[in-house]
């Protein structure tokens, strides 16, 4: 059976999970949600399509919702979701309900959705884990992915439901990136512009400028090789996290 996985990832956790799921399936292709939306109809009776993405306030990242709204999926396709999240329980689980609704809006039925706890990456709100502590999560995730893939392959029907979610990132979009700035360490290398999944950064006179359609994916601040990007004063003393099994080149646009 053919499987297609669409993933969205800011700091690499969801790409790590998507690749890992794909490696355990017979025929599986992995596509970035940040690249173009397929124009032709996809899926069919003997096909599976999966969505792998991070929980943002227990909700779908806006870019994932947009992508799904533009997809043309055959209604007989078996659909699954795998959400990566920082908390073992809690807001992350609201994603299943949000994904189910986004697909239902297209006349599609979600068959399976589960979650995997990965390192918390939201540096704008707290200090992320050290690389050493974070590595343990990848090892643990391998086991969990094995069991999730077993359930997907067995065509299990299961959705972990919770209604706890927030639409914070769907409001005041213009203001979400006002607190980003660069300090004197910026070399003008342009990596932040290339890693932003929604082209929200433009290099002007060798410095990044944020264009006010930010997803809060934290890719720019987390992958800047000089740790030159700050968000207000709080991030100056915080670690930069990105998944240690993912290379930056896999996320550059
Ligand atoms: C804007 C934002 C909101 C988040 N909200 C939640 C949340 O509500 N619940 C949760 O468990 N983790 C939350 N997290 C943590 C991420 O979901 C988690 O670290 C995820 O694995 C990151 O995936 P990525 O590396 O593929 O970007 C949030 C992270 C960000 C950046
Ligand atoms: S990635 Fe960092 S160093 Fe490079 S241009 Fe952006 S802010 Fe400057
Ligand atoms: S500006 Fe930074 S945080 Fe906002 S979407 Fe782009 S990479 Fe993500």
- Classification by helices and strands: alpha/beta
Count of helical regions:
6
List each distinct ligand once. Answer: flavin mononucleotide, iron/sulfur cluster
Rough outline: globular
CATH architecture of the largest domain: 3-Layer(aba) Sandwich
What gyration radius follows from the Cα positions, in whole Å?
18 Å
Question: What is the CATH homology-level superfamily of the largest domain?
Answer: Flavodoxin domain
Helix content: 25-40%
Describe this protein's structure.
The protein is of the alpha/beta class. The protein is built from 6 helices and 10 strands, in the order E-H-E-E-H-E-H-E-H-E-E-H-E-E-H-E. The protein folds into 2 domains: 2-159, Rossmann fold (3-Layer(aba) Sandwich), CATH 3.40.50; 168-250, 2-Layer Sandwich (Alpha-Beta Plaits). The chain has helices at residues 13-23, 62-70, 94-104, 131-153, 191-195, 219-223; strands spanning 2-7, 27-32, 47-54, 78-85, 110-117, 158-159, 180-182, 201-204, 207-210, 229-231. Helix 1 crosses helix 4 (131-153). The longest helix is centred in the middle third of the chain and has 23 residues, at 131-153. The two termini are 30 Å apart. The structure holds flavin mononucleotide (FMN) and iron/sulfur cluster (2 copies). One iron/sulfur cluster is lined by residues 182, 186-192, 208, 224, 226, 228-229.
């Amino acid at each position: 059976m053919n499987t297609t996985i669409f993933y969205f990832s800011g700091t690499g956790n969801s790409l790590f999970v998507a690749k890992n799921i794909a490696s355990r399936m017979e025929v599986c292709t992995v596509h970035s949600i940040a690249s173009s939306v397929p124009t032709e109809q996809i899926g069919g009776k003997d096909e599976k399509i999966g969505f792998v993405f991070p929980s943002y306030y227990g909700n779908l990242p806006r870019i994932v919702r947009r992508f799904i709204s533009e997809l043309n999926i055959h209604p007989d396709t078996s659909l699954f979701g795998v959400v990566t999240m920082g908390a073992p329980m809690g807001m992350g689980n609201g994603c299943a309900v949000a994904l189910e609704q986004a697909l239902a809006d297209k006349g599609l039925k979600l068959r399976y959705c589960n979650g995997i706890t990965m390192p918390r990456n939201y540096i704008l709100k707290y200090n992320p884990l050290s690389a050493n502590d974070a590595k343990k999560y990848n090892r643990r995730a391998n086991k969990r992915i094995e069991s999730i893939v077993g359930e997907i392959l067995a065509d299990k029907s299961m959705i972990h439901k919770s209604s706890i979610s927030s639409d914070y990132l769907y409001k005041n979009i213009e203001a979400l990136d006002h607190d980003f700035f660069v300090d004197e360490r910026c070399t003008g290398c342009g990596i932040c512009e290339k890693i932003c999944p929604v082209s929200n950064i433009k290099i002007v006179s060798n410095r990044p400028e944020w264009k006010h359609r930010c997803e809060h994916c934290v890719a720019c601040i987390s992958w800047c090789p000089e740790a030159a990007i700050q968000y207000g004063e709080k991030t100056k003393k915080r670690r930069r996290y990105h998944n240690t099994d993912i290379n930056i080149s896999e996320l550059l646009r």
